[in-house]
Amino acid sequence: MASRVWIVLLACLWSGAAGAAQKSVSFADGACSGRVWFDPAKTDEKGLRDTLALVYDYTLSAAPSPSFPNKPADMGRVNAAAYAAKCARIEAAAAALKPLDLPGAQDFHAKVKAAVADFCSFNIAKLKAFATPAALRDFTPAPAACGVYVDALEGRGDLSAVWRDSVAASCTKNVNPQACAARELRHAAVPDSAGWMRLYLITHAWNNCAVPTLKVNDPAGEAARAVLIRSLAEAFPRQKLECEGAD
User: Fold this and answer.
1) Three-state secondary structure call for residue 181
2) Contact 86, 34 (CB under 8 A)
3) For the segment 61-101, what is each residue's pLDDT rounded down to a tens digit?
4) Where are the alpha helices (DSSP H) in 68-104?
5) What are phi and psi for residue 213, nearest 5 degrees?
6) 232 exposed, middle or buried (CB, 10 Å; 0-12, 13-18, 19+)?
7) DSSP string for 190-221
8) 189/205 Cα distance (integer angstroms)
9) In what helix (H) or strand (E) does residue 32 lie, and over which residues does it extend?
10) Alpha-carbon distance 180 to 198, whole Å?
11) Is 52's pLDDT higher than 80?
């Protein structure tokens, strides 16, 4: 849902035409700020604010990204419970939104809630895996092929071989594959080499294998957002959008 191509549609549809609305509410989206005018006798203000928040307030519609350890010594300091609690607050805030009954609103709301829960589940699985590798299996959308990394982490596969293969496969996409591989493979000869291998398999190999399944990457989410933006434009023709740097 990260694409912002819908702003072009928004700029084209949202005119500043005069209307009978007596009140207005504002919203912000990055470098853009907007205002929507409405008739309070016909439109529930909270519903309108919730609808705008659903579309533009990413603190209410996007799950937080946790911090992951960058060296083996930090793996024991991961606090999956704290991240899960933060996620629960975001999920509750997203679920509490009561958007207006506009075409596309319920669909987009459902997709936002699903994407937040999915992203949280993905990250919670990774955070728990530093202590318990089997936790990666809790993220069930991950392809079966990702299981090879979990097997290696659990000791049911050759950790070193799986690690080397994953480094080689990943580095083939790098501009300098040899330098890329050398940066990672040097960890085979350092203290706690097994820790470095585990860290890589969780944060890179398994992560990259599972990422394509994330709902946040599903184009249907952005399509649903565009539908709701169009519905807002049609229901509230008196709107204004200004972006910094725009001609």
Assistant:
1) helix
2) no
3) 788 899 999 999 999 999 999 999 999 999 999 999 999 99
4) 80-96
5) -85, -10
6) buried
7) STTHHHHHHHHIIIIIIHHHHGGG-GGG-HHH
8) 20
9) strand 32-38
10) 18
11) yes
Length of the chain: 247
What's the whole-number mean pLDDT along residues 143-163? 97
Q: How many CB atoms lie within 10 A of CB 62?
A: 17
> Under the phi-then-psi rule, with left for phi > 0, alpha for psi from -120 to 50, and beta for the rest, what region is 155?
left
CB within 8 Å of 141: residues ≥ 6 apart: 118, 210, 213, 214
* b (16+ CB within 10 A) / e for 79-99: ebeebbeebeebeeebeebeb
Write out pLDDT tens, residues 124-136.
999 999 999 999 9
Q: From CA 214, how far away is CA 212, in angstroms rounded?
A: 6
Confidence of residue 246 (pLDDT cuts 50, 70, 90): low
Q: H helices within the chain, ranges in order?
A: 6-13, 45-56, 58-61, 80-96, 105-129, 147-154, 159-171, 177-185, 193-200, 207-210, 219-235
For residue range 178-233, what is the model confidence (pLDDT) as tens digits?
999 999 999 999 999 999 999 999 999 999 999 999 999 999 999 999 999 999 99
Residue 241's pLDDT is what? Answer: 83
